[in-house]
Amino acid sequence: MERIILFDGVCNLCNHSIQFIIKRDPNAVFKFASLQSDIGKELLKKHGLNEDTDSFVLIENNKSYIKSSAALRVCRKLKAPWNFFVLFFIVPRPVRDFIYDFIAKNRYRWFGKQESCMLPTPEIRKRFIE
């Protein structure tokens, strides 16, 4: 099963989140692409998501998940203790997404923005789709 995470490649918080996932994904089950890349835009379109989507997106088992649902589904595959975050699925999605949206709305102001997408190291590059 292929699992692809689409992320905002110029967002510092998003880039740090991807680095966090890579370090806690010992089986390398996730692959990555930025929302700004051609493949990212193609995958958004393929899954019926707006090209202007400004959210963390998980494509898993040919289904797409966004916002808090995507983040929690990713946590499910990380090593402990991070996989316990799936317990937040008991919180209703509108409440989870409200918190997600609040952080997303302020992410550039709080964490900054890069001029271009991150450049992964050669050993990590193979996990990025181009």
Binned strand content:
5-15%
Spell out the helices and strands N to C. Answer: EHEHEEHHH
Question: Count of helical segments?
Answer: 5
First-to-last CA distance? 19 Å
The helicity comes to: 40-55%
Rounded average pLDDT = 86
Question: Tell me, what's the shape?
Answer: globular
- As a whole number of angstroms, the C-alpha radius of gyration is 14 Å
Instruction: Please tally the β strands and state the result.
Output: 4
Structural class: alpha+beta
Q: Outline the biggest β-sheet.
A: 4 strands, mixed
What number of domains?
1
What ranges have pLDDT less than 50 throughout 5 or more consecutive residues? none
> How are the strands ordered across the major sheet?
2-1-3-4
InterPro entries: DCC1-like, DCC_oxidoreductase
GO molecular function: protein-disulfide reductase activity
Organism: Pueribacillus theae
Pfam families: DCC1-like
Which key phrases capture this entry?
alpha+beta, 130 residues, DCC1-like, 5 helices, Thiol-disulfide oxidoreductase, 14% strand, protein-disulfide reductase activity, four-stranded mixed beta sheet, single chain, 42% helix, 4 strands, DCC_oxidoreductase
Q: Can you walk me through this structure?
A:
The protein has one domain. The protein has about 130 residues and is α+β, with helices and mostly antiparallel strands. It starts with a strand and ends in a 5-residue tail after the last helix. The chain has a 4-stranded mixed beta sheet with strand order 2-1-3-4, covered by helices on one side. The model has no long low-confidence stretch (mean pLDDT about 85). It contains 5 helices and 4 strands, in the order E-H-E-H-E-E-H-H-H. About 40% of the residues lie in helices and about 15% in strands.
